[in-house]
Amino acid sequence: MAADILQFIIYAALVTLLAWPVGLYMAQLYSGHRTVLAPVLAPVERMTNRLLCVRENHGQRWTQYALACLAFNMAGWVILYAILRLQHLLPLNPEGLPALSPDLAFNTAVSFVTNTNWQAYGGETTMSYLSQMAGLTVQNFVSAATGIAVGAAVIRGFFARETKEIGNFWVDLTRTLLYVLLPLSIVTTLFLVWQGVPQNLLAYVQATTLEGGSQLLAQGPAASQIAIKQLGTNGGGFFNANSAVPYENPTPLTNIVQMVAILLIPAAFCFMFGKMVKDSRQGVAIFAAMGILFVAALAFTYSAEVSGNALYDDLPIDQTAGNMEGKEVRFGTGNSALWAVATTAASNGSVNSMHDSFTPLGGIALMLQMQIGEIIFGGVGSGFYGMLAFVLLTVFIAGLMVGRTPEYLGKKIEAKEVKLSVIAFLVMPLGVLVFGAASAVLPVGVASLQDAGPHGLSEIIYAYSSATGNNGSAYAGFGAGVPYHNTMQGIAMLLGRYAFIIPMLAIAGSLAAKKTVPASEGTFPTHTPLFVTLLIAVILIIGGLTFFPVLALGPIAEHLAMTAGETF
Predict the structure, then answer these.
(1) Cis before residue 377, ω within 30 degrees of 0?
(2) Hey, which residues does 327 pair with through a beta bridge?
(3) CA distance 118 to 136
(4) Can you tell me the distance from the alpha carbon of 113 to that of 138, in angstroms, rounded to the nearest whole number?
(5) What's the Cα-to-Cα distance from 237 to each of 88, 150, 517, 518, rounded to whole Å?
(6) Any domain includes 9
(7) Are 249 and 237 in contact (CB under 8 A)?
(8) pLDDT, tens digit, for every residue of 247-303?
(9) How far is C-alpha 297 from the geometric centre of its chain's CA atoms?
(10) How far apart, in whole angstroms, are the C-alpha atoms of residue 128 and residue 279?
């Protein structure tokens, strides 16, 4: 246990120490200042803008920004869907894999375009090399860049003064790809190749095992996709078992580096925000709120997993290592719990253990992090603008408590911003509770369950929490690869992505047009421990009121049954 706690501390320190300079660098980039990579990349950026007929200094209103974002993502979906449907006719398919069915192609294309990367398929048995590279990896880059660009635009709205413009989507997208994602991905890819992750176009290899059996070893351009899947909080694995596979995650070094990559950019957004609004304390306050919630989720999950399974307490089964079902021995309980909490906190979705095998209490924090909107630390960009919606609501509540007009960063928070925030908050209940309820009562939905009773309900709720929260991880026992769930989860992914982006861009446009009001003695400070505490309370109250009933019927009921010796 001491070794696990030490690793947790090292991990937190690495994320914080690396996120700070990355955040300052990103603040320079999205503020329009010259960065350290400009001598190399500025000519490429200018050439790209000329090819796209984009004027660098031409700003867009929030409606124009949103339309550009939606149009780009729609084009990406059409292209990816076509690649998946025509896979059997396209090159770089040495195993002769067939085309995906219409419903699976729809689900997969939506999944990767929305930065969800939910996988209702096995990568090495379904996707050709061309589909992996030109389809999935490309969307790993541009879907992550979309979230980062929107996040930067929303931040501009918070500090801009009396303007109708919040930036230019095409400029932000290009800069994100060139200056942020591409350099980080190149470095990470080279590191992974050095550690033994495949990066080739070879045919699959037939190998002889130590027992004399035969095994087919998948090959392919894995390292490059793994790098961006972690850095872009995508999570889609090149291989079916994701980061539990030695080919994706071969060493302790790759394990820690991939976990750091998951939270690097989401955490950096806090420091980027503080720099861009010219008050670093604001970014630190949000980082503190995210960090406290993350630590609480990790402590809850780890304690549940290290305690083992209550059903085995009276049996001669060694549980000194905790609940090891579904976990790699080389990672153990600590590494598995840390990865699970990080991936569900960051809307990443990659796994190095099977969440379906976690104890009922161990799975609660994973579900709740997705259900509150993936804001701890959330997806790249999307997590931060999701947290800003909670910040606005917290400021509004604080204003009501003291009888003053709510203000944040000198901007008055009025009915319009609060209503738009509430619209964004309704996305998760709609996708999780409404879609989940339908799947729990319709025979076609229930047919995909592996388990009966509370755990079966948990499988459904986890799946639709993951889809609507654009996370992508799953309870492995849930058979999602059927037309009903492929379609319904595809709709949930679209809802979770764009029904959140549009209200947040509208808030940014509204705030950008406002004057800045100087702070006075009555202004509620938003960088103090009191504000951090109030923000955390608002997040937990909204999440608890919305999702506690279904959690009580699922994992909580399963835990109580398990302690009583009852199984389903």
Answers:
(1) yes
(2) 353
(3) 12
(4) 10
(5) 21, 25, 48, 49
(6) no
(7) no
(8) 999 999 999 999 999 999 999 999 999 999 999 999 999 999 999 999 999 999 999
(9) 16
(10) 48
Angle at 444 between CA 440 and CA 449, to 5 degrees: 60
Number of Cβ atoms within 10 Å of the Cβ of 544: 14
Whether residues 284 and 164 fall in one domain: no
Q: CA 459, CA 475: separation in Å to the nearest integer?
A: 6
Can you say whether residue 84 is alpha, beta or left, with left for phi > 0 and alpha for psi between -120 and 50 degrees? alpha
Placement of tokens 């994706």 in the chain: 248
What does the pLDDT look like over 114-158, one tens digit per residue? 999 999 888 889 999 999 999 999 999 999 999 999 999 999 999
Amino acid at 525: P
What is the distance between the alpha carbons of residues 339 and 26, in angstroms, rounded to a whole number? 26
- Together in a domain, 183 and 290: no
- Single out the residue in 265, 290, 324 at which a domain terminates: 265
HEC sequence for 379-437: CCCHHHHHHHHHHHHHHHHHHHHHCCCCEECCEECCHHHHHHHHHHHCHHHHHHHHHHH
Phi first, then psi, for residue 448 (nearest 5°) are: -85, -5
What are the DSSP E strand ranges found in 170-246?
205-208, 214-217
